[in-house]
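Quick review question:
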């Protein structure tokens, strides 16, 4: 994107990412889907609370989206591949974007002669993190790894768009989890993209830009319709689909003005519908120091559990980085 266009966008607000079934550009002045309109700093009446409380259409099924507790709440390991005593996986750093391949620009990207006051369309992606092969096998025993995270941008960095691709070999291991004292695996946590904010930002003010989870049980802990829920700090949605534990899926999670989406594929073919949510009300500041995580930092309990036995692999994170 031309620097003149960037300069016009910088400092104005980004409208975040969420799954609410309200797709497209909800903010005033936004162009078509994927366009960079002005991210209104004041928002449009949307809540800027940390976390998200989402009640789905069935009623009574309330899920409070997890809020990042900050670095003090998640131990890391200095040795690559070595789990910590509490099972947290080592955190990988960013890759050198300058050494990366040319930007993977989406169709409709702005040309070099776009006027400075015109909205630029599409996302101009650069790979900011990639790791081939497995990054996490979710364990349930003491000392095993059950959580992995990375912060792919340099300190203080935020983004206009972010896309996270990974493979997840799921495991049919929910039966027998929970119980009278431990709860029920109503929510099987998959991944989250959090904007943790500048240094000094209280953990309670970190923003969930996109959080994906499977739902295979009802609130009464009975087997239910297979669903995926997409949560953000602004809204969320739950969609039914042909998703079964034990299958392997390629996930694509994308956050951009003014939507967040989750798409699952197998061999390049979409499996079930894409889950989409409006994120109107988010700002570029909400994306600063983003953190991507897999699994559950709390190991599991209550209504939130990781998918024990699942294998996450082949992670590629792309971003249209805000200067």
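Suggested answer, residue by residue:
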């Amino acid at each position: 994107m031309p620097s003149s266009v960037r300069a016009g966008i910088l400092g104005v607000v980004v409208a975040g990412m969420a799954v609410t079934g309200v797709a497209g550009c909800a903010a005033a002045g936004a162009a078509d889907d994927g366009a960079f309109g002005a991210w209104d700093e004041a928002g449009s009446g949307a809540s800027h609370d940390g976390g998200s409380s989402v009640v789905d259409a069935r009623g009574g099924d309330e899920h409070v989206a997890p809020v990042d507790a900050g670095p003090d709440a998640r131990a890391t390991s200095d040795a690559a591949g070595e789990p910590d005593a509490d099972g947290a996986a080592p955190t990988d750093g960013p890759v050198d974007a300058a050494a990366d391949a040319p930007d993977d620009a989406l169709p409709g990207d702005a040309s070099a002669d776009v006027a400075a006051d015109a909205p630029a369309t599409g996302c101009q992606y650069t790979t900011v993190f990639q790791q081939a092969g497995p990054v996490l096998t979710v364990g349930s025993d003491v000392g095993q790894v059950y959580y992995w995270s990375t912060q792919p941008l340099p300190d203080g960095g935020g983004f206009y768009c972010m896309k996270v691709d990974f493979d997840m070999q799921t495991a049919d291991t929910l039966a027998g989890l929970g119980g009278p004292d431990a709860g029920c695996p109503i929510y099987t946590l998959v991944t989250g993209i959090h904007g943790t904010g500048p240094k000094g930002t209280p953990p309670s003010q970190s923003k969930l830009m996109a959080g994906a989870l499977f739902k295979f049980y009802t609130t009464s802990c009975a087997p239910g319709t297979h669903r995926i829920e997409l949560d953000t700090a602004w809204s969320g949605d739950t969609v039914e689909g042909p998703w079964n534990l034990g299958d392997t899926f390629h996930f694509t999670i994308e956050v951009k003005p003014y939507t967040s989406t989750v798409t699952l594929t197998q061999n390049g073919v979409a499996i079930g519908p894409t889950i989409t949510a409006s994120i109107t009300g988010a700002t570029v500041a909400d994306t600063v120091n983003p953190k991507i995580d897999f699994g559950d930092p709390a190991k599991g309990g209550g209504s939130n559990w990781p998918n024990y036995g699942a294998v996450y692999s082949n992670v590629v994170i792309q971003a249209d980085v805000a200067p």
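Why it works: The two ends are 12 Å apart (CA to CA). DSSP finds one helix and 17 strands in the chain.
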